[in-house]
Amino acid sequence: QVQLVESGGGSVQAGGSLTLSCVASGRLFGGAGVGWYRQAPGEQRDLVARITNSGRTVYADSVKGRFLISRNNAINTMYLRMNNLKPEDTAVYYCNLYPAGSLSWGRGTQVTVSS
């Protein structure tokens, strides 16, 4: 079973930037899409951004223009560069395949944005 480990979260002020990393214990196969998800208190887990093996990216409207998703299959790692962070971005961020469902969720990494 592939394990997913998120890192890079922390506390920043609004307008700041942060880069999240996700390392998979197994290979992220080329045919698989991957994505970043987040869950704020009292809300469901939602897709933030996803990227196909060919590099096509799709972003949620709430983060479009601010976040950048990327992947490096050679080292089984994906990233989420978050710019111009807003308090509304505060959540636990998770990585997984897209569509999700076949891999267990990791513990996530907390991102807290203060005003």
Secondary structure blueprint with pairings:
Layout: E1 4-7, E2 10-13, E3 18-24, E4 33-39, E5 46-51, E6 57-59, E7 67-72, E8 77-82, E9 91-98, E10 109-114
Parallel strand pairs: 2-10
Antiparallel strand pairs: 1-3, 3-8, 4-5, 4-9, 5-6, 7-8, 9-10
Descriptive account of the structure:
The strands form 2 sheets. A 6-stranded mixed sheet has the order 2-10-9-4-5-6, with no helix packed on it. Strands 1-3-8-7 form a 4-stranded antiparallel sheet, with no helix packed on it. The chain has no helices and 10 strands. The model has no long low-confidence stretch (mean pLDDT 94). The termini are far apart. By secondary structure, the chain is mainly beta. 30% of the residues are buried.
Total strand segments: 10
Query: Which oligomerization state do the chains in this entry correspond to?
Result: single chain
Structural class: mainly beta
N/C terminus separation: 40 Å
Radius of gyration: 13 Å
Strand content: over 45%
Strand order of the largest sheet: 2-10-9-4-5-6
Q: Which term fits the overall shape?
A: globular
**SSE string, helices as H and strands as E:** EEEEEEEEEE
The biggest beta sheet is recorded as:
6 strands, mixed
Contiguous runs where pLDDT drops below 50 for at least 5 residues: none
Q: Helicity level, as a percent range?
A: under 10%
Number of helices: 0
Query: Averaged pLDDT, please?
Result: 94
